[in-house]
Amino acid sequence: MNNAAPIFRIPELSDADAVRRCALSALQSDLSFTNLYLLREKYHTEIMFHVEHLLRYFGGETRLKGYAFPAGKGDTDAIKSCLHVIETDAERREKELRFCLLTEEEVAKLKTRYGNKMTVSCDEGDSDYIYNTAALANLPGTLYHKKRNHIRKFERVYGKCIYMELTAENSDKALGIAAAWKENMYNSPAPEHEFAAIKKALSMPELLRLRGGILLLNNRPIAMCVASVINENITDIHYEKCIPEFRDAYPIINREFALRTHTPLINREEDLNIEGLRRAKLSYYPSLILKKFNAHITC
Questions:
Q1: Where do the CATH 3.40.630.30 domains begin and end in the chain?
Q2: Which run of H or of E encompasses 239?
Q3: DSSP letter at 61?
Q4: Per-residue pLDDT tens for 174-233?
Q5: pTM for the full predicted model
Q6: Domain 13-127+293-297: which topology?
Q7: What DSSP designation does 233 have?
């Protein structure tokens, strides 16, 4: 009989179904298998499964550091067992016990275990922007009149676009759009890393169960969207890019994708404290801004 302690490991494509089973009630983008897999090197991500829960460890020195709260059905005894595994693993690594990507509900659960030993902080840039799909698709009422006017103006100037679903056969068109976007970002490190992740995603759209679309203007690809379904309630948009010449097409690709999305909610991920990105996400009037917290446990 093997009594060795369970060990965290790097996530693999073969983990996809197990991760998705643990994310059946999740809203947060960090529980998308696509993100977990594509960003595993960036965040030095490790995972393990324990009593039908997903445990995640982020070992880098970036904004994500430490353990995420166990993801699964949330049974009290199972959570206790998972937290014991996490505590044991932190001791094995000789690391301070830290948590990241916590929802308010998860902070409250940890508080009952650690009490005054726990210090909590929040970075607004980590918050997920979650939208009603029907609102993004239909842009109804006075709230969205600027978006509707923006689209009408684009169509008056350039003509109407054609939307095509993203497939393995046309993923090269989406990659070309991302490449044009990157070249306009003046070779800063962040776009280089993001482009590498996009390239990897588009090399395996079927394995990652990607959804998305491409906008064509006069048969020229000008905008793209890459997403995946987290569960039956929510779809996560990973990447949304336009070529620089047609950056005003963002509201169109956003609307066209939403029109073809069957989950009631769409997660458009974080703004990373980038002011322009924050304004853009707020301009679509999210139904929920899902805050995420960090926690440090002292002895």
A1: 13-127+293-297, 128-269
A2: strand 234-242
A3: S
A4: 999 999 999 888 656 678 889 999 999 999 999 999 999 999 999 999 999 999 999 999
A5: 0.95
A6: Aminopeptidase (3.40.630)
A7: T
